[in-house]
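Regression test case RT-17, inverse folding.

Input:
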């Protein structure tokens, strides 16, 4: 048995141990993320936990192989084994073809030796989790944007777009397995650009249309909603706006990372758009796409950020009216230009600024949700509520959580509901 964890991000790992299942495992796969230091800290917690477990098992005459993969494995390679000698195999993101070799080596209890790096990123065949009604479909990998605070381009390399035939094949498989909602995934989906053997080109709006036509042609009717993540404001074209406006397969929710409302800070972040560019884009999207909801990422406390810059960010948030935001404060990531920037903001000030951003977002989210009471909405039912087994949890195409009474057998179906009231960040609804 080979349990796997990660990648994930967040604060210190509350539980570096693992779910039941690791107890009997003879191979543990630790899938790491390196985007933030906290994610690496968590991974180290797990690596050290399993190193101790491996020593215990060795005392009982049993073996445990520890395999570390993902971004941190790609970034640190040899360093991981130097720091924790109990790790058996380190498999970087460009060595995924080596998993078969790793399993053979574990089974035969021998060293793996050097594994060659693949010259190009290889997309996994499927990310499907059995039983899931929603699934992710990677369409590209890597990033060429080099935002000054971000380590992703150094870890994952240049943008690589996935063969559309491969994407459609995976989508067919997912639809046949009962998936109802897809999210097309990439660091910057809007810069998807496939160049085929004969020179044929396909850009992101072209891919959206291709996927939509393909699903309609299949007539299976299983997948009814498609989302995409993440959108960089400098690359979201008028053509993409047109597709969302005209094609009901595409959900009317876009996660459009802004990071800051100050031109000075945006330039220092190397985001390649201005506050005006962002607001103009949002204006065009809202005009073209009725019922659109927008969410974003906000990064406060960037080196040199002043109180006035923060006010500009708060002001932009109010002007756009994000339904939710992922908010965080700057932490230097070694190897990025921002890590060496002067005018660092004191931790206390960063925390205060973050608290102001979070407070505003909370207030806006509640106001926006309150304005939706009484509206009808279609939801994809995702699960039975953990609090009340007679209620089901679903999500609207605007990415709003909804709870309403219905039978558990309905999970995986679509339902039309009326939004009646609010409970925290969730709508309480009744089925129509
Ligand atoms: S676009 Fe996103 S992934 Fe790419 S460098 Fe900027 S923050 Fe990182």
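Golden output:
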């Amino acid at each position: 048995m080979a349990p796997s964890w990660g990648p994930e991000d967040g604060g210190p790992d509350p539980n570096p141990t693992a779910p039941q299942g690791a107890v009997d495992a003879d191979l543990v796969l630790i899938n790491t993320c390196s985007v933030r230091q906290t994610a690496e800290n968590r991974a180290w917690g797990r690596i050290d936990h399993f190193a101790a477990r491996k020593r215990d098992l060795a005392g009982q005459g049993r073996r445990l192989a520890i395999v570390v993969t993902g971004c941190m494995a790609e970034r640190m390679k040899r360093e991981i084994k130097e720091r924790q000698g109990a790790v058996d195999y380190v498999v970087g993101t460009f060595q995924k073809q080596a998993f078969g070799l790793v399993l053979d080596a574990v089974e035969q209890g021998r060293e793996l030796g050097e594994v060659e790096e693949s010259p190009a990123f290889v997309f996994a065949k499927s990310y499907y989790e059995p039983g899931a009604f929603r699934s992710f479909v990677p369409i590209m990998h890597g990033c060429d944007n080099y935002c000054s605070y971000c380590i992703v381009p150094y870890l994952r390399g240049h943008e690589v777009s996935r063969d559309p035939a491969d994407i459609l094949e995976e989508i067919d498989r997912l639809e046949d397995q009962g998936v109802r909602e897809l999210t097309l995934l990439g660091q910057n989906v809007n810069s998807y650009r496939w160049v085929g053997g004969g020179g044929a080109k396909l850009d992101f709006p072209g891919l959206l249309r291709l996927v939509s036509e393909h699903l309609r042609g299949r007539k299976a009717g299983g997948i009814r909603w498609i989302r995409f993540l993440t959108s960089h404001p400098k690359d979201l074209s008028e053509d993409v706006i047109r597709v969302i406006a005209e094609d009901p397969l595409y959900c009317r929710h876009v996660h459009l990372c802004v990071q800051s409302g100050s031109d000075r800070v945006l330039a220092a972040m190397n985001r390649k758009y201005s506050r005006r560019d962002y607001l103009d884009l949002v204006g065009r999207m809202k005009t073209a796409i009725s019922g659109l909801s927008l969410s974003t990422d906000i990064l406060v406390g960037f080196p040199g950020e002043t109180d006035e810059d923060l006010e500009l960010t708060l002001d932009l948030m109010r002007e756009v009216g994000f339904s939710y935001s992922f908010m965080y404060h700057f932490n230097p990531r070694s190897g990025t230009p921002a890590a060496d920037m002067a005018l660092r903001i004191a931790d206390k000030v960063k925390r205060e600024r973050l608290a102001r951003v979070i407070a505003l977002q909370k207030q806006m989210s509640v106001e926006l949700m309150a304005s939706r009471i009484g509206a009808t909405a279609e939801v994809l039912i995702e699960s039975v509520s953990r609090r009340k087994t007679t209620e089901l949890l679903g999500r609207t195409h605007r990415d709003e959580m909804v709870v309403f009474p219905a039978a558990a057998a309905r999970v995986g179906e679509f339902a039309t509901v009326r939004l009646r009231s609010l409970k925290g960040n969730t709508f309480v609804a009744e089925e129509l």
